[in-house]
Amino acid sequence: MAKLVINGGNRLYGCVDVQGAKNAVLPLFAASILTNEKVTIKNVPDLIDVENMAKILRSLGASVVKNGKNVEIHADNLKSSEISHALAKELRSSIFILGPMLGRLKQAKVAYPGGCDIGLRPIDIHLKAFREMNVKIVERSGYIYCDASNMISGDIMLDYPSVGATENIMLAAATIKGKTTIMNAAREPEIVDLQNFLAAMGASVKGAGTPFIEIEGTDKFKSVEYTAMADRIVTGTFAIAVAICGGEIMLNGCKGEHIQSLLSKLAKTSCNIKQYDDKIEIASKNHREAIEYIETQPYPGFPTDLQAQIMALQAVSEGVSIITENIFENRFKHVCELIKMGAAIRIKGRNAIIKGVDRLSGAEVSAQDLRGGAALVLAGLNAIGTTIVNDIYHIDRGYERIEDLLKKLGADIRRI
Ligand code: EPZ
């Protein structure tokens, strides 16, 4: 199994062209089956999760052709309305393929995606919304059977601003005549990207980025070429890397506003930050002061997907930091790995209490999930000596060859 070998202590200098956003591209792929016209999505990152979503679309009968960073999807001849257990378990977020299947095929048999590394990942909010749209749903033997032949528009109030559920409802409603409203919708930037994509295809969607989204469905979709937004979590990961290692980098193609909750904390404690329209300049202050409180929240609050990475920074910041993980119930699995590297961290329920040390020590550790794995890489960049990170397939789910970018910036890191 591949692993990363890191010798810590190097400062980082240079430029990074930030990859396309995994969590924008996945719903855009799902949206592409709403139409029998050809769709081209640009700025697609080369990731395991994206390839797994392509496999799901191909299993339905769509053609998916990769051409560098561009992917052509043509769902003019869908043959199946079933997502197998084997495919669903590979990509937990496959659940938002359900919405466009209901919209286009009016039926679906989808294996229950089940939990993953960071939590149970239930889909009750998704199914409750579809039942309110008159979709007949039977859950049996690990599968979800849906009959959407009489699906209707409606007013959906989400009990929690679920990102996936918001996207799923948008995708189903895009084909239904009439107005569907989503209240207490998630406000993540990836949802704005999906709105822009659906609008480019011919649907009328507005309000994405606010808690109130309106969708006027259509049965006439156009062929579209669309460039996905930059990955704000990859952007934040590299910003934290500068804080941990020292140095100065320019992050190109990204918007600071998408991670303002992180940048404001880094600016107060460890970095000088200049934001431009589509790039961010991050320079280390060469002093890392602990961030007293960090609480993960739905956007625009502090993102749960940067919780592990900011914890690696707090592990080597002066003072005590308390991180509360409000979104997922099992997202502290990187803590025991950081402790192996000398971090001083205590877990009390949903709270991690971190007492910063000057530097970590290199050790052999294992990635437990995508963002926790990225946090171990960041810790290794700071640590004295050599760190070996095992099970890096977790990291490859969301970061394009993370070691190449870091090496280009001056890190001593290699994949073996
Ligand atoms: C999306 O997951 C992202 N994935 C996650 O990124 C991200 O962490 C999450 O949003 C929160 O921002 C993609 O976009 C592909 P949710 P999603 O529905 O849609 C509970 C990464 O590292 N919930 O907002 O699954 C759920 O258990 C990944 O890139 C229900 O209870 O997130 C969780 O506690 C990890 N019932 C909370 O809501 C439901 O029906 C947030 O889930 C749905 C969700």
Q: How are the secondary structure elements laid out?
A:
Blueprint: E1 4-7, E2 12-17, H1 22-31, E3 38-42, H2 48-60, E4 63-67, E5 70-74, E6 82-83, H3 85-90, H4 98-105, E7 107-111, H5 124-132, E8 136-140, E9 143-147, E10 155-157, H6 163-173, E11 179-183, H7 189-201, E12 204-206, E13 212-216, E14 224-227, H8 232-245, E15 247-252, H9 260-269, E16 271-275, E17 279-284, E18 293-295, H10 307-314, E19 320-324, H11 335-340, E20 344-348, E21 351-355, E22 364-366, H12 370-382, E23 386-390, H13 393-396, H14 402-408, E24 412-415
The structure holds ligand EPZ.
Ligand EPZ binds next to helix 1, helix 5, helix 6 and helix 12.
Q: Output the radius of gyration.
A: 21 Å
Name of the level-1 CATH class of the largest domain? Alpha Beta
| CATH topology type of the largest domain | UDP-n-acetylglucosamine1-carboxyvinyl-transferase, Chain
Average pLDDT for all residues: 96
Q: Name the poorly predicted regions.
A: none
Distance between the termini: 9 Å
Can you summarize the main beta sheet?
4 strands, mixed
| Structural class based on helices, strands and sheet pairing | alpha/beta
- Biggest sheet, spatial arrangement of strands: 22-23-1-24
Q: Kindly state the number of beta strands.
A: 24
Ligand types:
ligand EPZ
Question: Looking at this structure, what is the CATH superfamily of the largest domain?
Answer: Enolpyruvate transferase domain
Helix percentage range? 25-40%
Percentage of residues in DSSP E strands: 25-35%
Number of domains: 2
Q: Which architecture of the largest domain does the CATH hierarchy give at level 2?
A: Alpha-beta prism
What's the number of helices? 14
